[in-house]
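User: Continuing from earlier, I have the next pair ready.

Assistant: Great, send them over.

User: Here they are, in order.

Assistant: Folding the first of the pair now:
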Amino acid sequence: MTTVEIEYCVPCGLLDPAIETQTRLLDEFGQELEGVTLAPSHGGVFTVTADGETIWDRAVHGIELDLEVIVSSVDDRLSTDA
């Protein structure tokens, strides 16, 4: 099963997008995931990893959060695990 971690910058106010991402993944994949955890951080970080592999990084992808890319990446991972 796939585990997703969302590391987000607390001082930047990125808790809400982190919760939105977490909720979307749980709504979309439910029990197919082992878990979706939030990891508070700092320094402008917003990174989503699946089983330790980065699938979204604010430093690479830009400030605009694209949930469709994240959902698609998790879906691809789940499809290959099946």
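And the other member of the pair:
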Amino acid sequence: MLEKIPHAVGEALSSLKAGIAATTYHADFPDTPATVRLTSPAFAEGGAIPARFTEDGEKTSPPLAWDNLPPGTVRVALIVEDAGSPTPRPLVHLIAWNLMPEAGPLAEGALPSPGGAHQSQDLGKNSFLQDQWLPPDPPTGHGPHEYLFQIYALDVALALDASPGRGAVIDAMRGHVLAKGCLTATYART
């Protein structure tokens, strides 16, 4: 959808970005130990997200793996945000909670995506109000966007209504996050 924004408009908005400091990882859980490792065989820390996981490709969710969860981890939550979004808050691309700690690695396409089948994971609403993977879709000319794939080790299973938003999930997580981890990747349209 945002690929239709003219390059000149994207370039004019290039200085407007939500920022890393506004992400859940930094704004909501800044003092949580960052000891969980989150990786992907599809891209390295700081590397580019392959187009197949974006609006420009197949739109599937990327493969992810985690380890080094602390003792007492009952469930895992995964939040993906775009810190480069020209919005006041980072754009939410995915919220998944109550993942089993041993469920990782998640295979490519394991999470619901546009046009894919909806699966039974506990999913929250992304910024487009859909409970699925929202593929990266930065405006042309806006420059590289930083996508934070954030993982949280929880000491409880969260009891939430179906398809909650970011705020409800974060509120439910408060006081239950044992440790966190982050994998940052980029994507840009030229």
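Worth noting for the second one:
Residues 126 and 180 are 20 Å apart (CA to CA). Residues 6-10 have pLDDT under 50 and may be disordered.
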